[in-house]
Amino acid sequence: MRYIKYMILGAIGLALLIMALANRQLVTLQLASPELAGLFGLTPEQISLSLPMYAVVFAAVGLGLLIGFLWEWVREHKHRSQASLKEREARKLQREVARLKDEKHEGQDEVLALLDKAS
User: Fold this and answer.
1) What would the pLDDT profile of 91-109 be if each residue is shown by its tens digit?
2) pLDDT in tens, 40-89
3) CA 28, CA 50: separation in Å to the nearest integer?
4) Can you tell me whether residue 44 is helix, strand or coil?
5) Please, what sign has the CA dihedral across residues 61, 66, 67, 68?
6) 96 located within any domain
7) Full domain range(s) for residue 26
8) What residue stretches are annotated with the Lipopolysaccharide assembly protein A domain (predicted)?
């Protein structure tokens, strides 16, 4: 199973490498419109960035993944807090059961207490 995982990851890596080599031409990204840049006294050259096409695609995919992971983390907060509450409650009940068993054994003969603990 581990080798299948490595083969799939290798195929994905190879596909990404082929895509990067095929898209090496530079593209210009405008970080803001020229009108908006003019309001702040910036020239179009100051708000543009030239990058290879594959870098733009990889950055967009990475940013999308990051936003998706953060969205899910925030969305699942309710479930994580509920699980934490249930875990604390279970620990509290386990301590209470252990305390009650100890109280039960105090009034018994030692042999009966040992037999009860073994079962």
Assistant:
1) 999 998 888 777 766 655 6
2) 888 877 888 899 998 998 999 999 999 999 999 999 999 999 999 999 99
3) 4
4) coil
5) positive
6) no
7) 1-54
8) 49-97
Count of C-beta atoms within a 10 Å radius of residue 48: 14
How open is the CA angle 18-20-26, to the nearest 5 degrees?
145
Q: How far is CA 100 from the centre of its chain?
A: 41
Residue 31, SS3? coil
Q: Residue 103 falls within a domain, yes or no?
A: no
Q: Which tokens sit at 36?
A: 């908006």
φ, ψ of residue 25 in degrees (nearest 5): -65, 150
* Three-state secondary structure readout of 58-107: HHHHHHHHHHHHHHHHHHCHHHHHHHHHHHHHHHHHHHHHHHHHHHHHHC
Does 107 map to a domain?
Answer: no
Structure confidence at residue 99 (pLDDT): 83
- Measured CA to CA in angstroms, residue 98 lies from 71, 79, 85, 90, 105 at distances of 41, 29, 20, 12, 11
Greater model confidence, 31 or 15: 15
